[in-house]
Predict the structure.
Amino acid sequence: MTVESVDPGDVDAADILGSAIERREDPALLTGNAEYTDDIQIDGMLHMAVVRSQYGHAELGDVDTSEAEAMDGVHGVYTYEDLTSDETPGAGSFALPTAWLLDSLKQVEHPVLASDRVRHQGDGIAVVVAEDRYTARDAAGAVDVEYERLDAVVHPSDAFAEDAEQIHDDAEGNVAFDWEIGDADKTADAFADASHTASIDLENQLLIANAMEPRAAVADYNPGTDELDVAMTTQNPHVHRLLMAGVIGHPEHKLSVRAPDVGGGFGSKIHHYADEALVAWCSMMHEAPVKWTATRSETYLTDAPGRGHETKAEIAMDDDGNIVGLRVDTKANMGAYLSTFAPAVPTYLYGTLLSGQYDIPAIYGHVKGAFTNVPPVDAYRGAGRPEASFLVERLVHLGAKEMGMDPVAFRRQNFVPDDAFPYETQVAVVYDSGEYEKPMDEALEMLDYENFREEQEQARNEGKYLGVGFSCYIEACGLAPSELAGQLGAQAGLWESSLVRMHPSGTVTAYCGTSGHGQGHGTTYAQIVANELGIPYDDVEVVEGDTDEIPQGMGTYGSRSAAVGGSSLVKSAQKVVEKGKQIAAHQLEADPDDIEFENGQYSVAGAPDRSLSMADVAGQAYLAHDIPDDMEPGLEETSFYDPDNFVFPFGTHAAIVEVDPDSGEIEIERYVAVDDVGNQINPKIVEGQIHGGIAQGVGQALYEGAEYDENATLLTGSMQDYAVPKAEHIPEMETESTVTPSPHNPLGVKGVGEAGTIAAPQAIVNAVADALEPFGVDHVDMPMDAESVWSAVQDNATADGGSDEPAAGTGDDPDAAADDGGER
Amino acid sequence: MTEHDITLTVNGAEHDLTVESRTLLVHALRDELGYTGTNVGCESSICGACTVRMDGEAVKSCTALAVQADGAEIRTVEDLGTRHDFHPIQEGFQEEHGLQCGYCTPGMMMTALDVLEENPDPTREEIREGLEGNLCRCTGYQNIVNAVQNAAEQMQPAAVADGGEADDDPTPATDGGEER
Ligand code: FES
Ligand code: FES
């Protein structure tokens, strides 16, 4: 189904929530009037460029900046010593903080410019400030750096090897943390008693977000007022402001951070990076505006990649095909330093979802974080949850096969039943609401599943290998509440703040501490506020992404904006309605308890002609000639909304693929997605988010992956080498939705931004495994390029005795695949 | 560094400017002339964010040198239409939700114009092929394909070339029978 968008003028006020209205942010973006950070020009603006390490791991020798300093148009060249010397402004830490602490975490120093050692390619060594961007880059190239190279480590398993090069003196064995969840003994017992088990050994590759807009920042220091304004590519301006204040040593109240239009983030613009702090510092140093814009190559070297797991996992079943246990051992790549929220990703965002959609009585997860010489790893779309969902859905696929059961029947039998919600998993979360069979049923119908199995059989007989793969995913969005986040190690609350300000004429400006970057918050938030206040949609303006305008905020990531930010707006609007009720009662000479509020009208119960509109009341609130005695004039309200719990969207995605075993090529024939994200504020925007998410999931399954050589030199350092999918690579997506509202917030919404990315990889990998079942291929690591698929077929053929033809009857025999030992 | 005096006609307005030999067209447009509607995504001619039309052809302005564009007519996104008077391609993107962050969008639209000029009634496959030089990280492309089809419908049978008043005669859809 394609959702048709509608013009806001064609929607009744009462139906504004839930309407697929066209986005109000589009006209500026479509006419070239958008303002992205690099568009900003300020008179007298200088440009910064960063000298970056060529090597993955090296001791720094002499850094000779003299040639660069002597160049025409160069205003300054700075190393770590310059930042911390007494001559220069700021008294910050000049080290990037980690904002999520685990008990066993080895916190290591992450200076904004390397002081003695570089630990990943692209690690900053010096910065240049110059007249224009060309000169700045030339001068950066002219800085002469002496390196003494060290052995490098790329993969977690190498980092943990006995004789591995040590990356940080104070992190013995390169262990960043050692963390576990669930019950090890109970799970061991479950495995001991189980009649069947299946296991997998996989790599969840490192991915680079590749937001189309590279990271950038423009800092403008005013020596007259001592105020420093920074416009930058951020998903969370207030958090950036707080962290930056500490890094550069400029007080938070004299620092403002603003997100202009932001060209995509996908997690990569959450974290505080060195370059942003450095631009701000350079602006103070030169008392002039300074701009830095990453080149695409710099984004490859420095944007935090995501994923990066090496995992062994197994699932246990009883005789009847009930899942009785799940056990996971993961080595997670943390990169060279601990990025802002990095420790949360492979732990609380991953381990807590290991139950998937299934009722599993015993689960144990063990995760060890590894320091390596890749850039600091952090959240990328989904962050931890895709890794968990991939693993669980791969195991369920293999479990069904082990049982000789249809993968649909096996899943159905093990789903958390509808009457079990709220459902407490073995890994410390309580699912809010769910009806897991609904999207599954819908997907099966869309696929015409029964028929497909016949078609598949027929095709196989003709030497054509079709496969269907399912992904019954769950995700956790809107991290909350703050108290719990604190117990888990967060150094921040996870509430959201908003302000709803009525103007005297009855129109509204609504401010929210989230910070959209393509999600259309201007539209959806206006729908929410218009609905609460009963005023026209066009009378609501939405402001986000500016610390000078918005009281406080935590930003946009983890699909939290609608659930937490939207709910905060509801609360603020409800407070406005409540204050308005007092004013209306006063003016209508009625008891406030007798005032009813509906469709933007306050009226006296039983006397509908005695009424005032929201706009009337707003006008009176500011006139203040006739309001209750003890009341302050004006009509605006703020709220800090702290949710009761996470929300848990879910759904079923399914892919039908054709695999050519001779070439290893995969064709996605169909892609079906049925998502349940709770109530939908704007179905068109929901659909768009699902599409975009699936595309990134398809990217992970088939194309994308950051690869480094043994020296930790990035091999996929450009769009030439790192395959961001193009239009031809993404299948037509067939999307539907079911609606199970969340009881945890006033909107009943869940979260949608990451759903597609979480769901898609395993749908496709399961489909490929299904197609290649006759060849005994159980698993192919992502990205499943033609070579890896072909090799998987060949390896199994060799194991089977030299033929790459499928063994007779293997398609029907669930044990046949086990002949190859199941190991790769 | 050698400098050159060049003339660029951008969206009908003539500009004389002095650039270095190595100045990229996109930087001349954005930094020198203030046409910041055109974006830079990769500086390596892969992503298409910087696509403009030069003498009627879609070109990636990060790979052209400003001096190569001396004397050329450049058309950028700023010349398409205004919020009150969208060009059909803008209308298509708005109606079909063909953009999210909007960063790829100006380049996407300039390429799409090229695609429609060559083939006013493309199939979905042809649109996907036509857009292969433009990356979008947000939309999953499906709604972009819808947007281009939508624009094609609006623009027929009026000439695509001038991109101007095509919506005078919005002949109804002949969408080639492709599945949405
Ligand atoms: S910026 Fe020109 S193609 Fe990417
Ligand atoms: S809309 Fe964001 S890159 Fe295309």
About this structure: Chain B touches chain A through 64 residues (CB under 8 Å). Residues B 40-43, 45-50, 60, 62 surround FE2/S2 (inorganic) cluster (ligand 1) (CB under 6 Å). Chain B has a mean pLDDT of 90. The CA atoms of residues 79 and 117 of chain B lie 17 Å apart.
